[in-house]
TrEMBL record:
Any matching Pfam family: V-ATPase_C
Protein family per UniProt: Belongs to the V-ATPase C subunit family.
SUPFAM superfamilies in alphabetical order: Vacuolar ATP synthase subunit C
Protein encoded by which gene: ATP6V1C2
Cellular component GO terms held in the UniProt record: lysosomal membrane; vacuolar proton-transporting V-type ATPase, V1 domain
Designated name of the protein: V-type proton ATPase subunit C
Organism field: Panthera tigris altaica (Siberian tiger)
Known partners and oligomeric status: V-ATPase is a heteromultimeric enzyme made up of two complexes: the ATP-hydrolytic V1 complex and the proton translocation V0 complex. The V1 complex consists of three catalytic AB heterodimers that form a heterohexamer, three peripheral stalks each consisting of EG heterodimers, one central rotor including subunits D and F, and the regulatory subunits C and H. The proton translocation complex V0 consists of the proton transport subunit a, a ring of proteolipid subunits c9c'', rotary subunit d, subunits e and f, and two accessory subunits. V-ATPase is a heteromultimeric enzyme made up of two complexes: the ATP-hydrolytic V1 complex and the proton translocation V0 complex. The V1 complex consists of three catalytic AB heterodimers that form a heterohexamer, three peripheral stalks each consisting of EG heterodimers, one central rotor including subunits D and F, and the regulatory subunits C and H. The proton translocation complex V0 consists of the proton transport subunit a, a ring of proteolipid subunits c9c'', rotary subunit d, subunits e and f, and the accessory subunits ATP6AP1/Ac45 and ATP6AP2/PRR.
Length: 369
C-alpha cells in the first residue's frame, strides 16, 4: 500500500512503553510495518507563536500536496510512451517515494533546527514557491518541445505531396554538382505508372533516357526521379502537369537533410531527458505534524513520532482499534469518538486530519489516482 500513518505521543516513560506495545501487537497481527520517524528538536518559541503559525502551516500543507500531485501528473505527461515506468521515475532525492518516507532524514542544511520555527516555515514556503516556479518553467519548455516534435513528426506522416522527403531520398537518387543536368522528383498516380514509363522521356526535349526510378509510394501514387537538362525544367513541368504528373519542388541539399535528421534526434533526446527526478518536497507534512504534537502536548518539547504502513486496506479498521486501545489514556473523549462518530470533539485540528487520542497525520503516496 502507498498509505502511511504518521502518529505521535508524548515521549515520557508511560507512552514510550505504549508505543512498544503498539509495535508488538501490530507486528504479531501483521497489521502494519512501523518505523521511528525522527523530527528534530526545533527552537519552537512560545505556544502563542505556534498558534500564529497554524493558518500558514495549513495553507502550506494544502499547497504542497497539490504541487506534488501536479508534478506527478507532469511526469505522466512526459512519459506518455512509457507509462509503465512512471512510478520508477517519481523519485525524491534519487529514491522511490516509499523509501524516502520510511527512511526520512531531516535536511539540516536546508532547514536548520537551531533557527526559530517561524524561520524554518518561511524557508519551506520559499522553497515550495521556487519549486512551483521551476515546474511552470519546465512545463512550458516541455510543451514547446512537444509541439516542435509533433510538427516534425507530422511532416513525416503526410502524403507524398506534403511530407518531408529527407527520410525517403538518398544522395544516390540525384545527379549533383552538374552544371547542365538536374534530377527532379515527380509524383505519379498509381493508375498512371505505365503511362509515365512510356511518356516521360518525350515530355520535353533533353530528358535523359532511362533515368527514372520509383523511390517511394503511398496509397495514392509513387515518387519517381527523372533527370534532364536544366534549361528545359519549365517546359518539362508544364508538360508533366498536362499529363497529371506533379513535379514536387525539392532539391537535394545534404546539409539541410542532415540538419532535419539531427533536429529530430535532438528533440527526441531532449524529451527523454525531461523525465528528470521528482524533487524532494514530500516533507510537507512534517512541520504540520510537529505543530500538532506541540499544540496537543505543549512545551517543553517531548514526544515520539512513529510511521506506520498498513499492510492492506482490510486491516486498517483493526489497526485503528489497536491504536485506540493503546493510547486511550491520552484522551478518553477522543477514544470514544473513534467508536462513536456522533461524539463532537472540540479542540485542535489541522486541515482535514481526523482527531484521535494520539496525534495522527495521513500520508498518501498514490499520486497518480
Amino acid at each position: 500500500m502507498s498509505e502511511f500513518w504518521l502518529i505521535s505521543a508524548p515521549g515520557d516513560k508511560e507512552n514510550l512503553q505504549a508505543l512498544e506495545r503498539m509495535n508488538t501487537v501490530t507486528s504479531k497481527s501483521n497489521l502494519s510495518y512501523n518505523t521511528k520517524f525522527s523530527i528534530p528538536d526545533f527552537k519552537v518559541g512560545t505556544l502563542d507563536s505556534l498558534v500564529g503559525l497554524s493558518d500558514e502551516l495549513g495553507k502550506l500543507d494544502t499547497f504542497a500536496e497539490s504541487l506534488i500531485k501536479r508534478m506527478a501528473q507532469s511526469v505522466v505527461e512526459v512519459m506518455e510512451d512509457s507509462k509503465g515506468k512512471v512510478p520508477e521515475n517519481l523519485l525524491a532525492n534519487g529514491v522511490d517515494l516509499t523509501s524516502f518516507v520510511t527512511h526520512f532524514e531531516w535536511d539540516m542544511a536546508k532547514y536548520p533546527a537551531k533557527q526559530p520555527l517561524v524561520c524554518v516555515v518561511d524557508t519551506l514556503a520559499k522553497q515550495l514557491a521556487q519549486i512551483e516556479t521551476d515546474l511552470k518553467s519546465r512545463t512550458a519548455a516541455y510543451n514547446t518541445l512537444k509541439t516542435n516534435l509533433e510538427n516534425l513528426e507530422k511532416q513525416s506522416m503526410g502524403n507524398l505531396f506534403t511530407r518531408t522527403l529527407s527520410d525517403i531520398v538518398s544522395k544516390e537518387d540525384f545527379v549533383l554538382d552538374s552544371e547542365y543536368l538536374v534530377t527532379l522528383l515527380v509524383i505519379v498516380p498509381k493508375p498512371s505508372y505505365a503511362q509515365w514509363q512510356k511518356t516521360y522521356e518525350s515530355l520535353s526535349d533533353m530528358v535523359v533516357p532511362r533515368s527514372t526510378k520509383l523511390i517511394a509510394e503511398d496509397n495514392e501514387g509513387g515518387l519517381f526521379t527523372v533527370t534532364l537538362f536544366r534549361k528545359v525544367i519549365d517546359d518539362f513541368k508544364t508538360k508533366a502537369k498536362e499529363n497529371k504528373f506533379t513535379v514536387r519542388e525539392f532539391y537535394y541539399d545534404e546539409k539541410e537533410i542532415k540538419r532535419e535528421r539531427e533536429e529530430l534526434s535532438r528533440l527526441l533526446s531532449d524529451k527523454k531527458q525531461q523525465y528528470g527526478c521528482f524533487p524532494p518536497v514530500s516533507i510537507w507534512g512534517n512541520l504540520s505534524a510537529h505543530f500538532v504534537c506541540l499544540g496537543r502536548y505543549g512545551l517543553p518539547v517531548n514526544f515520539q513520532a512513529v510511521l506506520l504502513q498498513p499492510h492492506k486496506k482490510s486491516s486498517t479498521k483493526r489497526l485503528r482499534e489497536v491504536l485506540n486501545s493503546v493510547f486511550r489514556h491520552l484522551d478518553q473523549v477522543a477514544a470514544a469518538s473513534v467508536l462513536d462518530a456522533s461524539v463532537d470533539i472540540p479542540g485542535l485540528q489541522l486541515g482535514n486530519q481526523d482527531y484521535f487520542p494520539y496525534v495522527y497525520f495521513h500520508i498518501d503516496l498514490s499520486l497518480l489516482d
